[in-house]
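Continuing the series of single-chain predictions for the mutant panel. This is the parent chain; the variants come on the following pages.
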Amino acid sequence: MSELKHELHPRNDQANDEGASSTASTEVTPQTTDEGVDELVTRSMPGRKRRRKKKRNRRLTLAVLPTLLTLGNAVCGLAAISIAMSSTLDWELENQLLVAGILIFGGMLFDALDGSAARMTGQESQFGAELDSLCDAITFGTAPAVIVWQYSEGIGLPRKVTWAIGALFTLCVLIRLARFNVETTEDDPHDGFEGLPSPAAAGTIAAFVIAMPELNAYTTETASETGKRIAEQLLLGSQIFVAGLTLTLAYLMVSRFQYPHVFQQLLRGRRAPHQIGQALFVLIGALLLHWLALPIAFCYYAFASPVKALFHRWRDRENRSTTTSPE
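Parent structure:
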């Protein structure tokens, strides 16, 4: 009986030992199972961990290229601001603005390449998007405003007015960039924009200051007196025109008009027949007008979409009015 009693009611120390051993066994079980799975995976595919490490290192290496391209955009913008406002350079103002405009075009090139490089290498990230917006604010927001301030000197407008025009342009660029970051999703095909892109707006202003030396040359090198007078009037009127153009571009950036992504369509090989005709038109204009064709091409891109959209709205309204009018 005593032996049966001991078996039915074991001592506390034995029970505790058995409970501890069972607890330890249950605690060790997940680790041993996880380690066993890892060992089985490693034995079955011995090069898997190495390939993972190599893949991670490769991705980190490729991510450097889009970042460097984005920072190159910022360097172009800072250089454009410095040159446009410099008082120590022994250059004429139109040459300073010419170099500043070329640097803005350099920033446009970097801005076009960094996004394509990030998508091609699979390195699109929130960090890259935020850095790109900050660099765009410098090159396409601040630098064009400085060019407008410098270029509009001596046209009769008060300095406060020209300063307000440039400041409004920069603020609209910031709103445009913030809206783009919020509304753009990860699966966006990047075929178009809602509102005029800030690089195109900045490029329109830069195109005018790049073309001004060419227009100024017509005032001295043209043999015809009528041609000289026309060139002089265009040169004087361009300063007033650029100030008004800057206000219009600022509105178009925050508008909802649809604009095509020209660079992305060229990379993907998507060219409609009318786009080929437009490219030929630009090529012929460049051969005939040289640098003067640049502002014409940018103004066409900036205003073609709004004009088409307003025309279609007007035509739809006319069609609805004719269909609803009584006979």
